[in-house]
Recover the amino acids of this structure.
């Protein structure tokens, strides 16, 4: 096999969820592709690595200093939603249910994986909160894992003294369309204890 | 979203088996990856597109004129296995059951998809066969689809007059480890009609 082909296969296989067979198939598809996909992918990746950085306000991704969401004057600056990763911003934007600002932590605190509070974007969070004078709600948009919950709890404590408005978190419960008997006890238990008036 | 990030997501999503969510996840993984994976992938793809071509004998992939398999003097030049794609060469090499030469067609004849006999590497196949004076077996290593079988039949006919040795094809039957009641009737039927003496 030509070395560049093996290198491409190896690089693909190092990505999450791509096994060695899929990596081979992707590489050969790119080799024989008529639409210059390999060149497009290659140059997008190079450009991305060279130009994309974290927004100086919310730590989302941008190729300017400040991201488009923070620059958008139509966004509601009374609400700030803290999320773990840039992917979570995309996921929440797709719901069209939130028009406020985000803050991306780029991780969660994890003693096991040696991620300390100073390794995620908390200093930037406190600065971001100070820059939003009419902020009245901070939404903890973190995931459902133990580490995420511990991080949310840590942030709650840190916000005391720094922020006097509402601190909320995403609702926990049964996912849309799910059947009860397929759900784990944790999810279902929480849906029960946090039940709401109809 | 920065344009290069969207471009990378789009390029990933254009690959077979990668949906838009996976494409996002792969792109963000590359953005935050510590091992320079994005750069490795990007440069492997560029190099691959610039340097990799078809072997002048067997049409497998190479960055020289002739591929390593055709250059390897220890390979058995009495046997030639015709396959559809470079991936099939890798798959057969992994079995360690074949030490002869290959010939890669880069496709199968398909009237539906407008692939004619002259669109696959048949001229190269006839030339390759002429270059192997002690060739005594041509193995039709094509897949099990109707198009593959029709292509194999077409090649069989074309080989008359060009090659006087044995023409064989891969055995058809039940896959290793499979249970009979999970198999389709075509596979099982063929395994029955082509049964062998124990």
């Amino acid at each position: 096999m030509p070395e560049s082909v093996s290198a491409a296969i190896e690089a693909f296989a190092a990505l999450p969820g791509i096994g060695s067979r899929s990596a081979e198939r992707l590489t050969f598809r790119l080799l024989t592709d008529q639409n210059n996909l390999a060149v497009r992918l290659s140059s997008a990746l190079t450009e991305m690595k060279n130009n994309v950085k974290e927004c100086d306000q919310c730590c989302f991704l941008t190729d300017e200093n400040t991201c488009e969401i923070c620059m958008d004057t139509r966004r509601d600056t009374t609400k700030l939603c803290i999320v773990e990763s840039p992917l979570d911003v995309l996921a929440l934007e797709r719901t069209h249910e939130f028009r406020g600002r985000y803050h991306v932590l780029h991780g969660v605190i994890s003693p096991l994986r040696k991620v300390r509070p100073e390794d995620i974007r908390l200093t930037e969070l406190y600065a971001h909160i100070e820059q939003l004078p009419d902020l009245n709600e901070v939404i903890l948009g973190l995931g459902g894992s133990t580490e995420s919950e511990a991080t949310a709890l840590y942030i709650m404590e840190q916000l005391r003294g720094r922020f006097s408005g509402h601190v909320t978190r995403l609702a926990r419960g049964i996912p849309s369309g799910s059947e009860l008997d397929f759900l784990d006890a944790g999810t279902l238990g929480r849906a029960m204890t946090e039940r709401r008036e109809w």
